[in-house]
Write a structure and sequence with these properties.
mainly beta; Metal Binding Protein, Guanine Nucleotide Exchange Factor, Chain A; 3-stranded antiparallel beta sheet; 10 strands; 5% helix
Length: 130
């Protein structure tokens, strides 16, 4: 059974087939700037099981992460990471139903704002995990 999501205006929608292989929280400054939030909440799915419909734009940052968004409303939808081919990182805020699993990893915790109080998963890294 496929899972689904869409942007704020509904112009872009997507499906993916399998349950997420990972659910993570990222506090890197690129994620903070692109989401306008102190963290990005992301699930990882196989690229070959991800289908998107609608018009997206994209931006590739210096870290070689291509972030795709709705051209109409600007909602962040998914990212592709050059050093992790074959996967898609979907922002959980655009999912029709939130994951049934909890985050298993947090990264770039050293960039987390001091005012944000959050209980991270046991696997928390100051930068990217090795």
């Amino acid at each position: 059974m496929s899972k689904s999501g869409k942007c704020l205006c509904g112009d872009v929608n997507f499906t993916y087939e399998s349950d997420p292989g990972m659910f993570l929280l990222c506090h890197c400054t690129d994620c903070q700037r692109s989401t306008g939030s102190p963290l990005a909440s992301i699930i990882i799915v196989p690229e070959n099981e991800f289908t998107i419909n609608g018009s997206t734009g994209s931006y590739e940052c210096e870290a070689k992460v291509t972030r795709s968004f709705c051209k109409n409303c600007g909602s962040q939808i998914f990212s592709k990471i050059a050093r992790a081919p074959g996967i898609v990182a979907i922002k959980t805020g655009v999912l029709d139903q939130q994951p049934k699993i909890k985050p298993s990893l947090a990264c770039w915790t050293k960039s987390k704002p001091k005012w944000l109080e959050i209980k991270h998963p046991e696997n928390a890294f100051e930068e990217n995990p090795s």
